[in-house]
Amino acid sequence: MGKGGQDYGKSESLGAKSSSSHEGFAAWAKDVGECEENYQVNREYGLSADDVQKRRTKYGWNELEKHEGPSVFRLILDQFNDTLVRILLVAAVISFVLAWYDGEEGGEMEITAFVEPLVIFLILIVNAIVGVWQENNAEKALEALKEIQSQQATVIRDGRKNTHLPAKELVPGDIVELRVGDKVPADLRVLTLISSTFRVEQGSLTGESESVSKTTKAVSLDTDIQGKKCMVFAGTTVVNGNCICLVTQTGMGTEIGKVHSQIHEASQSEEDTPLKKKLNEFGEVLTAIIGVICALVWLINVKYFLSWEYVDGWPRNFKFSFEKCTYYFEIAVALAVAAIPEGLPAVITTCLALGTRKMAQKNALVRKLPSVETLGCTTVICSDKTGTLTTNQMAVAKFVAMGSKANAVRTFKVDGTTYSPLDGRIQDWHMGRLDANLQMIAKIAAVCNDAGIEQSGNHYVASGMPTEAALKVMVEKMGLPDGLDRGALSGRGDALRCCRTWSKLERRIATLEFDRDRKSMGVVVNSSSGRKSLLVKGAVENLLERSSFIQLLDGSIVELDQASRDKILQSLHTMSSSALRCLGFAYKENLPEFATYNGDEDHPAHQLLLNPSNYSSIESNLVFVGLAGLRDPPRKEVRQAIEDCRAAGIRVMVITGDNKSTAEAICREIGVFGPDEDISLKSLTGREFMDISDTKSHLRQSGGLLFSRAEPRHKQEIVRLLKEDGEVVAMTGDGVNDAPALKLADIGIAMGIAGTEVAKEASDMVLADDNFSTIVAAVGEGRSIYNNMKAFIRYMISSNIGEVACIFLTAALGIPEGLIPVQLLWVNLVTDGPPATALGFNPPDKYVMKKPPRRSDDSLITAWILFRYLVIGLYVGIATVGIFIIWYTHNSFFGIDLSGDGHSLVTYSQLANWGQCRSWEGFSVKPFTAGSQEFRFDADPCDYFLTGKKKAMTLSLSVLVAIEMFNSLNALSEDASLLTMPPWVNPWLLVAMSISFGLHFLILYVPFLAQVFGIVPLSLNEWLLVLAVALPVILIDEILKFIGRCSSGVRRSGVKHKAE
Predict the structure, then answer these.
(1) Cα-flanking dihedrals φ and ψ of residue 846, to 5°?
(2) Are the C-beta atoms of residues 547 and 587 closer than 8 Å to each other?
(3) Distance of CA 32 to the CA centre of its chain
């Protein structure tokens, strides 16, 4: 057994008290007497009060455990377990300490100094709040599981029946009575049936598409959960009959308790998304880079804050400048702020949120934002069959009527996959021309039927048994004979117009309920002619055994001979081999005992009906008229979706609780398997898969795979093995049994219509239409979103490389600080934000679903892209530092006059050695203007390199903003030129650039904001200089893109030549 199977065994042992000594007792494999003896109870008397108390002490309450999640404090600490966050935290602390130190001196810089650490702390706090909120939602699936537990139970104790005992008080050995509509309160062994049949809807736990008939007979010890016909399980619902049962397991020992343990176990092993892993790796690299650059900056500038003299060949008389040391601390903080794209989390969240809106329009409701990105690299979709690949609505696919001769039959194919009478039609059918045989089939299907169909919005829903509902839809598609049709015109808007017409003609006066022995249901009707008839439907073989005649096409009755029987059985075999569930139709008109019966309880015939053992004799000497083949049909659009998956390099595996033959037929029909493909090695039951020695090799097979009769542990094991093999797994499901695997998968996808709350809470995404093709559309959307995210992540990282280059060059050249951390924060958080978000609206690649999925370890930045952005970053550094130097050293540049503000020029040597200003003799500077402000330096000319640098800083900041805006145009495509992919292909980007420039103008020209950011307004000539310095970034990247296209073309042709 694989790892998952071992884990499953461990999780079962989590049952604590409730799985004690009775855990080893296989009640399903023991007869009723042995069960009562083992649990020391009598079904008539039940447990005594003393017994109950002892057992509760031993086994505990019948409730699911509440797993204590991590404390809020632990969750908060976990949010800081991220490299980028820790760098920012250190930067904020240093920044705060330096601000406090500077604040003691007062002055206008005090405001900007405190804005910076507060903004960083605010970013970290918001990040922590969002993270804690997301993780708090993780355990909701376990709470939803408790909601499906029964609240009350009918129990026999001390010989008395208690109809309202709280279900949590049940203990193993309790005797429980179940009735129609009850929710099963614990795992129970059926002791005796009170009604002739007892059926339970357990699909949410086992994955079966139909309700299951239960019995008292023991089954073999190694039977899977679906085969335990004598057991009923907690959380399932009784849909027919009533019975007496024995409690065998309570609380965590029940099947639903094991699912609870598995969900908890799966939630402990949740992994980061592929993108999160990439960003974490990037953060670690970034830490190393920041460390190296800080060390370089300090080494280059150590002479400014630490000096010494050599005496006798040894360094002596060390001099340390604390002021200069703190200045280079500030440089280190600026480097950290410059290197980290603080706005990236917000932009990623915005892009993912916009992606969820797009997906919602396609009926895919995303519950967890990161799953949008993970969808894009899905390599395997593990899909449930019932309700996802199929409609979860039974439909007649084919019916067989008798021919004109005794050994002839007619076969009709029926289109349609839903309960809508308007969905599809009968092929080669002539409305109104129903011969006598077809009329009888329609009559039996309509009247011997307890189901209903009604319209709910744009679709039709069934009440009652799905198979019976499907028969009524078939009757509506058959229509009425011409004569009857004219008489039923008044009911044209009625969904069951034909069925109601037949019911008026053949009025039911008694019902012979279905039971598991005779496998049929009959109704006694009073026809419009005044005669009594018996209409019967049921298992074809059983009806044939009790039939003596057949009705031919013209209504004549002939004896059922062996040739006719063989012909009917041949039709049955053909339909059964196509995984159709077959029902036969028969009738009887000679009913002497019911000739005068009209439903009166005093009539002798009524006594016959009270005893089900008489039903077989009443239903004898029948006239067989035909049979119908039903199935849960595949959705129309699924076949194309499977082909799309194949084209996109995504493997589809079907994992279902349903039986093998039905699942195989559906898989062939929808294209998971070819029509003639040998699937002996590709279609296994869950148990067969677990018995394979090398399960991973089985899962690595190309093409589709099928796992039928799968239990929760099988689904978990398959998902776990796929993930261990490096696959990115999307898992669909709707039942309680699917929840652990949904939680464990990279993407858990629940059904919105048929899904249980447990499955929805355990999932990452919910399908509003329960349709497999919606998953494929969502994968395509996820790929497009990831491509766009990659574009803006690269854009933001390239911008940050430029900022780091700027800080490094400033420190290396020894010139005054050109950009302060609060300005870099503004650029990273606000100015870069709108263009980065707008890149998320890049038009999708029309071939996005024709390419194989990206590998989960696919690099965000290739070596060539990194080289490109290093070149761009170097230019950003040169441009921002260059314009700072130009303002101090030149009156004009490229013919643009910069002397209008009256500032004084200095030499480059003076600028690079500004720290020695006080030793310069006769150094003086003139006042200059910036907007309405005038800067004077009469008291301290050296302040020209501190307070006086505001204009130069503003030019540097403006160049940085302008370059990053133009660089966002470069990010529209990784390789395509702006000539082939112009800016207007994404108009949102042009709007975003306008917003970013507008925000920059806001902080420039609003005095209070200008003071906070330490900048001043610019003149028209200065703006011309900014544009002249910023625009070349487009030309540089166009040249690099051209080189990239040429080299990739050479590589491709080389690969092609090699292949040839």
Answers:
(1) -70, -15
(2) no
(3) 44
User: 90 by DSSP, 3-state: which?
Assistant: helix
CA 327 from centroid of its chain's CA atoms:
50
Contact 955, 973 (CB under 8 A): no
φ/ψ (deg, to 5) at 163? -85, -10
CA distances from 178 to 147, 450, 788, 1015 (A): 19, 22, 56, 79
Q: Report residue 394 CA to chain centroid gap.
A: 27
Q: Are 187 and 200 in contact (CB under 8 A)?
A: no
Dist. CA 560–CA 558, nearest whole Å: 6
Mind listing the domains of the chain with CATH numbers?
25-269 (2.70.150.10), 364-390+635-770 (3.40.50.1000), 395-482+495-598+615-631 (3.40.1110.10), 798-844+867-1047 (1.20.1110.10)
CA distance 817 to 820: 7
Q: What percent of the chain has pLDDT over 70?
A: 85
Report the chain's terminal Cα–Cα distance, integer Å: 46
Identify the three-state secondary structure at position 630.
strand
* Residue 513 confidence (pLDDT): 85
As a whole number of angstroms, the distance between CA 396 and CA 150 comes to 35
Interval 4-41: pLDDT, tens: 333 433 333 333 344 344 557 889 999 999 999 999 99
Which residues, 6 or more positions from 23, have their beta carbon under 8 angstroms from its beta carbon? 15, 249, 253
Whole-angstrom Cα distance, residue 2 to residue 708? 18
Instruction: Sort strands 705-708 and 547-551 into parallel, antiparallel or unpaired.
Output: unpaired
Q: Six-digit token pair at 690? A: 């677990």
**Angle subtended by helix axes 863-889 and 1032-1059, to nearest 10:** 160
Q: Residue 247: which H helix or E strand, with range?
A: strand 243-249
Q: How far apart are CA 533 and CA 587, in angstroms?
A: 7
Enumerate the active-site residues. Answer: 384
Angle (deg, nearest 10), helices 772-813 and 863-889: 40
Q: Which helix (H) or strand (E) holds 402?
A: strand 395-402
Assess contact for 417 and 634: CB atoms under 8 A: yes
3 state DSSP class of 962: helix
Which residue in 292, 302, 350 sits closest to 327, CA to CA? 302
Q: Which two tokens stand for residue 744?
A: 């464990």
Which residues are paired to 729 by β-bridges? 380
Q: Which of 459, 463, 439 is nearest to 449 (CA)?
A: 463
**DSSP bridge partners of 765:** 366, 749
Q: What is the mean pLDDT of the chain?
A: 81
Longest dimension (CA), the chain: 135
- Are the C-beta atoms of residues 993 and 839 closer than 8 Å to each other? no
Alpha helices in 737-891 (DSSP H): 739-744, 757-762, 772-813, 821-826, 833-839, 863-889
Nearest to 837 by CA among 959, 961, 958, 971: 971
Distances (CA, A) of 264 to 13, 206, 367, 526, 629: 13, 19, 19, 59, 42
DSSP conformation class of 408: -
Q: Give burial (CB, 10 Å; 0-12/13-18/19+) of 736.
A: buried
Give residue 83's pLDDT. Answer: 67
Indicate the DSSP class of residue 313: T
Q: What pTM does this model have?
A: 0.66
Amino acid in position 746: D
Please give the full DSSP string across 857-889, using - where no structure is assigned: T--SS-HHHHHHHHHHHHHHHHHHHHHHHHHHH
Which one-letter amino acid corresponds to residue 104? E
Q: Indicate the pairing of strand 747-751 with strand 765-767.
A: parallel
pLDDT level of residue 2 (50, 70, 90 thresholds):
very low
Selection from 616, 713, 575, 688 nearest residue 266 by Cα: 713
The dihedral built from the CA positions of residue 424, 426, 430 and 434, taken in this order, carries a sign that is negative
SS3 label, residue 319: strand
- For residue 155, what are the β-bridge partners? 162, 176
